[in-house]
Write a structure and sequence with these properties.
- There is one protein chain.
- The protein is an all-alpha fold and 254 residues long.
- The protein has ten helices and no strands.
- It has one domain: Four Helix Bundle (Hemerythrin (Met), subunit A), CATH 1.20.120.1760.
- Helix 4 packs antiparallel against helix 5.
- The radius of gyration is 18 Å and the shape is globular.
Length: 254
């Protein structure tokens, strides 16, 4: 099922891996592989990327960062083609993402002379960027006949779906709130009326999609390969300013 109806789709710069992700999902459709297996696969790919960063194998690091992004899309695609959605997989995906993101930034900090405060604030900025993108994207989906299963913000533990254990959902949802709750509250405080405004135009959502994790990992990969490693953390810290610019544009016009 598409996340948005055809007439409201926009160019999502963070979703470049979707065609390959669909191929992977379709190839696994009739196998015993589950979406959680694919999620474990992207965790492994992310860990290999971290090792490559620390060893300064930047081409390999870039490959595994992008492969991680593709597998990150493939687990959801596999859940759709097998028609087996699960909250366990959904929250495991998100929790794994934020932990890997922190490790990516710590690895880059370790091999550069970047001050630790820039590493920490850049990581916070990275997550704030991703939260704004998800916030606007889910609002847009919920305005139409797109992916109505998504919620703008997660506040209540969901009931486990068929085939998963409530205990697993409870633990992973608690971890999700621990890692993402502050970012969700911050974005909501900054733009609490976004859901009642006008429909976001396609160009606006394409611009905001530069905050998507896939595009963020692509930027890191390119900067590593070009040996701009010392600029990665300052870049993401500076680019966080765009959070306030996008919110300002949204409030002014939409």
């Amino acid at each position: 099922m598409s996340k948005l109806p055809q007439e409201h789709k926009f160019i999502d710069l963070s979703d470049y891996g979707r065609p390959v992700a669909k191929m992977i999902a379709n190839s696994l459709k009739n196998t015993s592989f589950t979406p959680i297996h694919v999620t474990i696969g992207f965790i492994i790919s992310g860990l290999i990327a971290i090792y490559c960063i620390l060893q300064e194998y930047f081409w390999l690091a870039g490959f595994f960062l992008i492969f991680k992004s593709i597998l990150d899309a493939a687990d959801g695609e596999l859940a759709r083609v097998k028609q087996k959605p699960s909250y366990t997989g959904r929250y495991l995906d998100s929790v794994s993402d934020i932990i890997l993101n922190a490790l990516f930034f710590l690895s880059i900090w370790f091999i550069t002379d970047t001050p630790i405060w820039i590493c920490i604030t850049a990581f916070l900025g990275l997550q704030l960027q991703g939260t704004l993108y998800n916030y606007y994207y889910v609002i847009l989906r919920n305005k139409f006949d797109g992916d109505t299963t998504s919620r703008v913000f997660e506040t209540k533990t969901p009931v486990a779906l068929k085939g998963e254990k409530q205990q697993h959902v409870n633990v992973l949802f608690s971890l999700y709130l621990f890692f993402y709750g502050a970012f969700d509250k911050t974005i909501y405080t900054l733009d609490r009326n976004a859901g009642i405004g006008k429909i976001f135009p396609k160009w606006f959502m394409t611009s905001v999609s530069t905050f998507g994790l896939g595009f963020q990992l692509l930027i890191i990969s390119v900067m590593l390969v070009l040996d701009f490693k010392a600029l990665i953390l300052p870049f993401f810290l500076a680019y966080t300013v765009m959070v306030f610019i996008f919110i300002g544009v949204r409030k002014a016009f939409y």
